[in-house]
Amino acid sequence: MNTFEKRAYGDGYRCIAGVDEAGRGPLAGPVVAAAVIFPAGYQNSQINDSKKLTARKRDELYKIIWDDAAAVGVGVAEADVIDRINILQASLQAMREAVLDLAKIPDFILIDGLYTLAIDTPQKALVKGDAISISIAAASIIAKVSRDRIMEMYHRQFPQYNFQQNKGYGTAEHRKILKEIGMCKIHRRSFHLKNYDVRQIVLDWS
Known about the structure:
Blueprint: H1 3-10, E1 16-22, E2 31-37, H2 55-68, E3 71-77, H3 79-85, H4 87-100, E4 108-112, E5 123-126, H5 134-157, H6 163-166, H7 172-181, E6 183-184, E7 202-203
Parallel strand pairs: 1-4, 4-5, 6-7
Antiparallel strand pairs: 1-2, 2-3
Helix pairs in contact: 2-5, 3-4
């Protein structure tokens, strides 16, 4: 899991950040990104792609990563930003913000996916990077847990949608609720919600 980190160290880099995001697919809520820098040579066999871990394990590793990392940064792009610039650009923006949020400045960045970031720092995009880079995997955990906690806060504001359970994803229950009462302010209007026969009503609950 640290092959790419070792390569970067071998090329002379000393402060390597892994970056990933969570929440590209949901119908509601933000996309959240994280960046993680570990001390050189850091290893933890439990850290893996967040999608392969239980919620309980993610929560456990979330704390471990915060404790062990040299720096952690988080970036968020809310639904209105996603609607304005599209989900890909919002994801890249959130990842860039996560890097800029780091307390240490990385000299090399490993990014999950196909795209690099608009930052003047050497970087490499890795497809399925969260399964092959410990730094990216750790970032995937931080991003996923952070987003889940945001959605739990939104659940308290909009309990009608059961965001605590569905986290904004298009579950059968969520689609049924959308048909019955329409959207709230954190739904992504650009995600073609009409495909779910959603009532075209936006509830302005505060």
